[in-house]
Amino acid sequence: MKNHYLFIILLSSVFLFTQCSEDLSMEPSSPEHNGLKIDLSSIYRGVYLDSLKYIVGDQGKENALLQWCQYNSFTTVTCYDLYTLLATSAGYPKVAAFIRKARTQYGITTVTACMGSANAFTTTINNYNASRTDALEKFDYANLELEWWNKAATFKNYLKELQGINAWGDAQTTQIPTETYIGWFQNPTGQELTQATGIVSNTDRILVHDYQTTPTFSYMKSRLQWLGKAAKAQNKIQKIIFLFSAEPTFSFNYFVNNSFDNTYIKVLSEYQAASFTGKENLEIIGYQIFAQSEGRAARPMMIQ
Asked: What's this model's pTM, rounded to 2 decimal places?
């Protein structure tokens, strides 16, 4: 009788194992949201690295930051504080070591320099890159952050800076692509298409902010529509990155309860379900988080 019960238990265990295996094999390879499949296998995941002047050169702080980046599958880091870190050539070795470590040990594939003018790239970034013989230590993307919509410049001056960065990047032996972060088409208003046209013609990709307490596609729709119209007129497929803010004023509390990937899935599914003129000329490649300090507070790395 005892052997009979053992046989039944063993047979049940085999059945349950087989059933579980079949269930696992039937799981979709891509997550779904509202019936739409989202492929996360090769998306762009980026994060702004603020407070770098307090981190670079401190091995413990560098490792903690880069471990968190790797934990969240970020493959692009966009660097602030370069005016300070690269003020003189004395800072070059520390920055070079940090970039090399990020690439060789933590899965970072793109290291973007974020500056506010063309002159900063033709001098500060150019001088640093020229000093490095190893490509693993160089910046390989240029990001312009100059908030003309907040009156940090006129749009005319902003566009001049963007054109200068784009020309500088194109002239490098290994081309350095250009991107920019945008908020609103204003200052002045009524020139949405003119502004979108200038930006699309001088960038390889554009970060469009979705700064809300709960990120949604509808918040970005009008800006994406203008960018799509401009791209269509130029017969171009414009790469777009959704930019989410982990600041307390915006999505910090949302990120406490929702992962970065799931936030992207939500917004992208809303985008996929929408229709608007110019959409066919946009390519959503992924998302970026502003910035690491708030992002790490909202989504700390869990010990597994």
From this structure: 0.88
